[in-house]
Specification:
It contains 8 helices and 5 strands. With 194 residues, it is an alpha/beta fold.
Length: 194
């Protein structure tokens, strides 16, 4: 295996989490990472500037190392996108905890298998969710979050705004809802009236 130009370690801790990156960064340093990129952000979020800065610096032969796969991303789609970016740069990837190393044929195969199993799991979750929703509909149950406003309150908002007696922003403030919700209520009322 050709030596990497540099081994870059990425350590992420969830924003607002009481955890620290100390254990992860120590493991990455012991693994030979010459440069560490630390970030506080959710694993399913797209706005991770430190991660994308690291990806933009990758060159042929570099290797990105993480303490655990879940530290890179919690979303399969995002993980595959990141792995594509690493591969497109001609770089490799290592996960210390899972023992994945895409600089080897076995590691690349292992990563493909993990991706396939994750996709199967996601499809099974989707099927179970659809089945559960269908069962709930059959039993006349409605899912989702409880509405903040009653039908009477929604009708009052629509009536006062469409008649011009109150401003939309004022009604949103009175009922403690966003202007977006208020505008949807008014739009629905106008659509029904047509």
């Amino acid at each position: 295996m050709t030596p990497a130009l540099y081994l870059a370690g990425y350590a992420r801790v969830s924003r607002g989490d009481e955890q620290s990156n100390a254990v992860r960064t120590a493991a990455l340093t012991r693994a030979g990472c010459r440069r560490l990129f630390e970030e506080a952000a959710g694993g399913g979020r797209w706005d991770r500037p430190v991660l994308y800065n690291m990806l933009s610096l990758l060159r042929e032969g570099d290797v990105v190392a993480v303490w655990k796969l879940g530290r890179l991303s919690r979303s399969l789609k995002d993980l595959l996108h990141i792995m594509e970016r690493i591969g497109a740069a001609g770089a490799g990837f290592r996960s210390l905890t899972e023992g994945i190393d895409t600089t080897t044929p076995a590691g690349r195969t292992m990563m493909r298998m993990i991706s396939a199993f994750a996709e199967i799991e996601r499809e099974m979750i989707r099927e179970r969710t659809s089945a559960g929703l269908a069962q709930a509909r059959a039993e006349s149950r409605v899912g989702g979050r409880k509405r903040k406003l009653t039908e009477r309150q929604r009708a009052e908002i629509a009536d006062r705004v469409t008649s011009g007696r109150k401003a939309a922003t004022e009604m949103a403030r009175i009922f403690g809802v966003s202007q977006l919700i208020e505008s949807r209520i008014v739009a629905e009322a106008r659509a029904k009236a047509e």
